[in-house]
Every structure is written in structure tokens, then in C-alpha cells.
Automatic annotation (TrEMBL):
Coiled coil (UniProt feature): none
A Pfam cross-reference name: Epimerase
Name of this protein: CBS domain-containing protein
The entry's keywords: CBS domain
Domain CBS: 1-62
Length: 452
């Protein structure tokens, strides 16, 4: 097919590398045709060429003319279809891929069209994703989802909870594990420099775990995020998806939206708020942060946790016939861990104009439950279990959240029900799994104490 509309591929020789790469990402096109004012084609380059040039030390403000391929493959108006097909398969981009478009020039070298080989698939952008904390509770599910969609996935994780969550992925062709600490700038650079998108899940997670070693929590949750942002900007990574939490809302009687005032009650929530602010203050036409405020997570994962309200109550009901309720009137916006991972996929796949600089509460409005309501659901599903009042200090967090924005903009709907999530966990218990659910590897707080 001859494509006569080619303006979106054309750039002037003075266009900077930074301008070109972010415009290509925005348009989701793979090829940059460098033309002079009279439309003479002077050179060709791809997103991969630009990224490699920056890795090689070229200034992002350098012009595309400094790195373009002036010995490009092209066709003339007299080139027949068979020759055009052959040329398209010779027209190679970075990472050994083919560029499906071949420029067609007249005798004066003026660009007059593009031949499009429909047998070559358009690249999916972004192609390569770094997941910090990719061996964790959400990350181990997310890694699988992205691999199944054809992404190249790099995981940067210190494996403080072990590698069980991703052990079966390590032989997959498109999967790479970097065992490293996000506090280490060199290891961050190693993970970031060749990807198109970063999903930042790593950190000390949860109020109890974050309180064990406040200095370590600040280094990991706050300062590492700042470093991550700077490295993404330097290496022209346009999209950063940040895992925040609805715990930033603290305690409120309102139905909370993304515009509601944040009232962080813990160090964990405060580090999320400070990271969000720094991300949004750095947003521009070249750097596009997306903030996902997860609800209260629960459910099965390859890297299982039993320090979450639903998971812990379910385990206690099954193994001890007791469901301990702390207070009971506090509201929690429940979110299955698989749905949390799916929200990350949507944030990666969405056009930048939909998500750039946006905050999304992640969950489902109908899934706001009180602790007592959760206990009653579990009680119905686990025979001989009893609900008992706990004698420890009541958790001050109490919030109901609206999730209409993510449903409207990203189509995030069709949740896993609370009953289904609990039944999944119970099925594993009945199969003899997780008898050691009190082991510290399932508990973020106990793992932090071990690491002091």
C-alpha cells in the first residue's frame, strides 16, 4: 500500500533528539524522516537509534541530523511491488526489527510517499518495561500480564522476600531480572536506560513495616523515587507509573475523590504524598508521570502476603476458627491484587494524553467495606469460624473512596468480587498450601524487623 499522507513522520534536521523521541512516543510511530524545507529526504532514524545515541553520550539537545542514517533504503516511483516488499524487509530498525515503511522519492530526492508492508506488524509502544519491585505481591502478577501481552520485562528487585514469585519467569526469553536495591543509583541506571516505561512498585510497603526503620523507609520510598525520576528524565523515558495508596487520605467521612484533601497518618502514607508531589512537579511535555492510588489489597499472588486485612482474617478463620476484628467500623476500599496489576497494564497501554500527570484512585466504588462487613463475609464462607473483638489499639485509618475517574477514563471495571477472592485463598488452604502463613516471608513488618 502506498501511503501519501506522511507528514507525521517528517522532522526538520534541527529537531532535537529529545523533541523527536517524545513526539514519536506520543504518535506511536517508529520512524523519523528527516527532510529539509523543500521535502528532500536527508536521513532516517528510529526511536531505538535515538535511545542508543543518548546511551552513547549524545546530548538530548543535539539535532536529529547528527545521528540520522544518511545511507537509507528508499524506493522510486518506478519501483515495482515485489521490489518494494523486498526493500521493506531490508529496512531494519533497532533490536533487529523491521521498519514496515519504505520512503518513495522522485528523481530530485523529494519525499512523495511511503510504501507500507502490511505483513510487518506495527510495533507496540512502549515495548520494554522496567518494574521496580517486580518480584513482589503486585509485581509478580504484573510481570506475567505484561509478558503475555508481548512486552519485554525487566524486574529490579532486592529479593528481600525471595524469588519464588518470579522463579518460573526467569527462563522466558523476554524476561530479565536485576537483583538490586533501588537506593543504588548505578543499579537504577542499569534497569532504566534501555526501557520505554517504568512501573515503580518497589518500596517499604504498609504502615507497620515503614515504622520499623524510618531512615531506611525515607531512603527507599522517598529519596529513591527522586533518583528514579531524574534518571528517567535523563534517559528520555517518557512514562513512569507510580504505585501510591489510598491511605494518603487518612481518615474522612466523605466519599473521597482524587481532588480530596490528603491527610496522611503514617510515615508510609507521608512518603507516598511527598513522592506524588515530586512526580507531578517534574511533569512536562517530555516526562509523563501516572499516579495510581491503590485501594486496600488482598487476594492470591505468586508472592503471597498474610499481613493484609482480608488475607489475614481468612487465614485466621480457616486455621484457628477465629476472625479477629480491630474496631470494625472503619471503611476500607478493597482491591484484588490481580485487579491492581490490571490497572498498571491500562496505565502503560493508554495514550499519553489520557494519563499524563493524572492521579487515579484504583478500585471499585461498590467495593468499599467496613472491617465488620469483611469479617461477616469470611464468617459465612468458613464453617465453625467465630468473630471476636481484638484487644489491640484501633487502626485510625478510615476512608471510603470513589473510583469513577478510572472507570470513565481507562474503562477499569469488572472487578473480582470479595467472595471470589476469599474462595481462591480458601481453595489453596484446603489443598495444603500456606500452613506456615505466619512465616515472616509473608509479612512485610516481620521481614523489616529481620533486616534491621
Amino acid at each position: 500500500m502506498i501511503q501519501k499522507e506522511f507528514k507525521k513522520y517528517v522532522y526538520s534536521p534541527s529537531t532535537t533528539l529529545q523533541e523527536a523521541i517524545h513526539d514519536l512516543y506520543r504518535k506511536k510511530v517508529e520512524i523519523c524522516l528527516v527532510c529539509d524545507k523543500k521535502n528532500h529526504l536527508r536521513g532516517i532514524l528510529t526511536i531505538g537509534d535515538i535511545k542508543q545515541a543518548i546511551l552513547d553520550g549524545f546530548d538530548p539537545d543535539s539535532s536529529v541530523a547528527t545521528i540520522m542514517n544518511a545511507n537509507f533504503i528508499s524506493a522510486s516511483v518506478d519501483t515495482n511491488k515485489e521490489e518494494l516488499i523486498n526493500l521493506s524487509f531490508k529496512n531494519r530498525g533497532y533490536l533487529k526489527g523491521h521498519i514496515k515503511r519504505v520512503p518513495i522519492l522522485n528523481k530530485e530526492g523529494v519525499l512523495i510517499g511511503l510504501y507500507v508492508n502490511e505483513k510487518i506488524k506495527d510495533p507496540v509502544l512502549p515495548k520494554s518495561v522496567l518494574i521496580t519491585g517486580g518480584a513482589g505481591y503486585v509485581g509478580s502478577i504484573l510481570s506475567r500480564k505484561l509478558l503475555n501481552k508481548g512486552y519485554r520485562v525487566t524486574v529490579l528487585d532486592n529479593l528481600s522476600f525471595g524469588s519464588r514469585g518470579i522463579m518460573d519467569l526467569q527462563k522466558k526469553r523476554n524476561f530479565k531480572l536485576i537483583k538490586g536495591d533501588i537506593r543504588n543509583i548505578g543499579e537504577l541506571i542499569k534497569g532504566i536506560k534501555s526501557v520505554d516505561c517504568v512501573i515503580h512498585l518497589a518500596g517499604v510497603v504498609g504502615d507497620p513495616a515503614s515504622s520499623v526503620n524510618p531512615v531506611y523507609t525515607m531512603e527507599t520510598n522517598h529519596f529513591s523515587t527522586k533518583s528514579l525520576i531524574e534518571i528517567c528524565r535523563h534517559y528520555q523515558v517518557p512514562r513512569l507509573v507510580f504505585a501510591s495508596s489510598c491511605s494518603v487520605y487518612g481518615a474522612s467521612s466523605e466519599l473521597l475523590t482524587e481532588k480530596s484533601k490528603v491527610r496522611p497518618l503514617s510515615l508510609y502514607a507521608k512518603t507516598k504524598v511527598s513522592s506524588e508531589k515530586f512526580l507531578l512537579s517534574n511533569a512536562n511535555s517530555y516526562f509523563h508521570p501516572v499516579i495510581l492510588r491503590f485501594g486496600t489489597l488482598y487476594g492470591l499472588s505468586p508472592r503471597m502476603r498474610f499481613d493484609l486485612v482480608v488475607n489475614t482474617m481468612t487465614a485466621s478463620a480457616y486455621f484457628k476458627n477465629k476472625i479477629m476484628v480491630n474496631g470494625g467500623s472503619q471503611w476500607r476500599p478493597l482491591l484484588h491484587v490481580n485487579d491492581a496489576a490490571e490497572a498498571c497494564v491500562l496505565a502503560v497501554d493508554a495514550p499519553l494524553k489520557k494519563v499524563s500527570g493524572q492521579i487515579f484512585n484504583v478500585g471499585f466504588t461498590g467495593h468499599n467495606f467496613t472491617i465488620c462487613q469483611i469479617a461477616k463475609v469470611i464468617n459465612k464462607l468458613v464453617k465453625n469460624s467465630k468473630i471476636e473483638e481484638a484487644d489491640f489499639v484501633k487502626d485510625r485509618r478510615d476512608y471510603k473512596v470513589s473510583f469513577s475517574k478510572i472507570k470513565k477514563i481507562l474503562g477499569f471495571d469488572n472487578p473480582i468480587s470479595l467472595q471470589s477472592g476469599i474462595k481462591e485463598i480458601l481453595a489453596f488452604f484446603k489443598a495444603g498450601q500456606f500452613k506456615d502463613f505466619r512465616n515472616r516471608r509473608f509479612n512485610n513488618y516481620l521481614t523489616q524487623i529481620r533486616n534491621i
